[in-house]
Amino acid sequence: MTISDSEAGVRLALRTPASVDIFTRILTHGPIGRIDVGRQTGLSQAAVTKAVAPLLAEGIVTADAERPVRATGPAAGRPVQPLRVVPDALLVLGIKVNVDEVIGVATGMTAKVRWSAHRTIADSRPETVVDTVCAVAAELIALLGADAGRLAGVGVAVSGDVDSASGVVRDSPLLGWHGVDLAAPLRARLGLPVLIDNDVRALTIAEHWFGAGIDSGSFAIVTIGSGIGCGLYLNGDVVSGSHGVAGELGHLPLASMEAVCVCGRRGCVEAVASSGAVLRAVRDAAGAPQLTIGDAARLARSGDEAAIAAFDRAGRAIGAALAVVANLTGPDTVLVAGEGMQEFELYERCIREEFTAHAFGAAADCVLITRAHTFDDWARGAAASLIRAVVRQELHRI
Amino acid sequence: MTISDSEAGVRLALRTPASVDIFTRILTHGPIGRIDVGRQTGLSQAAVTKAVAPLLAEGIVTADAERPVRATGPAAGRPVQPLRVVPDALLVLGIKVNVDEVIGVATGMTAKVRWSAHRTIADSRPETVVDTVCAVAAELIALLGADAGRLAGVGVAVSGDVDSASGVVRDSPLLGWHGVDLAAPLRARLGLPVLIDNDVRALTIAEHWFGAGIDSGSFAIVTIGSGIGCGLYLNGDVVSGSHGVAGELGHLPLASMEAVCVCGRRGCVEAVASSGAVLRAVRDAAGAPQLTIGDAARLARSGDEAAIAAFDRAGRAIGAALAVVANLTGPDTVLVAGEGMQEFELYERCIREEFTAHAFGAAADCVLITRAHTFDDWARGAAASLIRAVVRQELHRI
Asked: What stretches pass through the bilayer (chains A, B) (predicted)?
């Protein structure tokens, strides 16, 4: 195994599926003893030793002699020198494109943020976005200084139907894009491998490798905010959808058929539960078209009935949607996150009531975790998606 | 590789994950050339040759010298002797427990039905069901004659929340069972390995290995009848649910909240779309509590407005449920089956209208297949579930 920089973008040369599995286990579960790596990957100790030796020699992986842990299982009690990945052996950039902003982070292999950079955009035309992504990347590269030589590539997260293999954003209603090749111009200008991914899928990868989903066999992330999204991790991988569409929780017909969604359909969860839908309802009731979502939340907290009703209606749709995820896919853990979490206490009662009313049998046993979530988390998701592609040797195949 | 009958139940001793993959590919895709087996499993030709040699020697797999096919891909044009599994090298029983009937089939390794047997039951108490399953199994074993010595085990399919690892039916509302250990008494009386599985999950395995899902990367089966069920195959396996619950399409809150389900919840799909719900609506409207589902269908076909409305309402709930499956999990293929398919033309228009109205973007591109379905198919599902456990070496671990 070697790091090769014969092409643009430093890469890991993990040559066999077994070495990819072993490295992934050390990356996501380190520090971890060799015996546990073998047990958890189902590979022999010989295979682990063979895969780890060159990683140790090249400084990608380190054995923490100063931090011995006790082995678990049959070899319990024997002190071991646990393996872990050297976080900064490779670096990546993760960038999230919003409708009004481009957010970037620079991270090491474990998706820990070292630097971040934000730029607002006046419009979301593809040219504007490409220019701004390049400017944010340049800013992060400058912050990395000499370390930028260890960059493996740039992950970019966009909402909508994204074809990662071709780098084309097939359809992004939020950005107003149809068939936009985002990867090609970015690769040309940045001189680095570029991976475009759906934002919720990228976030799911981040949570699976480095977050709430790390030891979960099956989990779901539900994001509440300007859209209602869902990432599913089932049977060992993120659910991508055979036609590029999956996790479209915001467009399940769980709301009243009188509610018309921005997508044009009736009864979508987003039609009552997106921050925009809540805001519209509060503005209409108050006759105050200038209210912000912060104003709407303040009204609800101060007891305004129309504002409370708008958040309740959103919470009921979200709660029903969570029950659908549980009844249909049976995750052990559901993480509710997104920028809407700032007002979560306004949704929470109705979310939980509706979930409880419709979760079927043992599906109700799934653990609901709620978590504040920053815009940087989306960019970190893009970084995690790129890290996974680097480890799985997929980046230079795209 | 050997067939061992040192314990009850003939078994395949596939010793490595690679040999399991190779055998599975030959079983599900045979006749198939060695080169294609290697290409499709991602294993080397040497690995294929090594795994296949003992299978050929023992007559589990055969090379069809008399049926050469042309290789595909890089070796295109070269005649090859395709490999296939000898269907009757191992035999299995598959048994479906209904609320009023036990249905059994005897099949070979490719789940092709050789014999079937049915018995009605007066009640669905566990003792009655165990007695009847044993009687049906005995009838099938008698029909197999000397071949019964090649039986690998008995698969039993039950609706509800089933823990296959322990053989316990945790919760089956249809049978009125809670925490019933079905495997232990059957193993004791039959002297064969027994695998209990959820009926829809078993059907999904059958379709994935031997049916509509054979070359599908992700597919869903939706069953219409006395219940509305769903089996999902995603990321290389059936979705089982971390708490044993998944695919509960019948209990998604997509119907009017005025509709009360047999499970006690409001708004469930089954509350308007099960054959029982349709029948109740037609009976109530006609003031004729003795009507059968066949009578209800005849009324709808003859233009009775209340009967048509009942089937329409069912169709709309099922169509919305199909859109939920597509939007959330993005399968390439959805197979609609079940005993309700006999009246499918009465549901179809509303199913398709509602699916089209709510399928999001490219999720609408999934292929909807409809198929008539017999009760034997459920028993065949139980057989397929057992075959898979035999191949994956899971049966004697349970």
From this structure: none
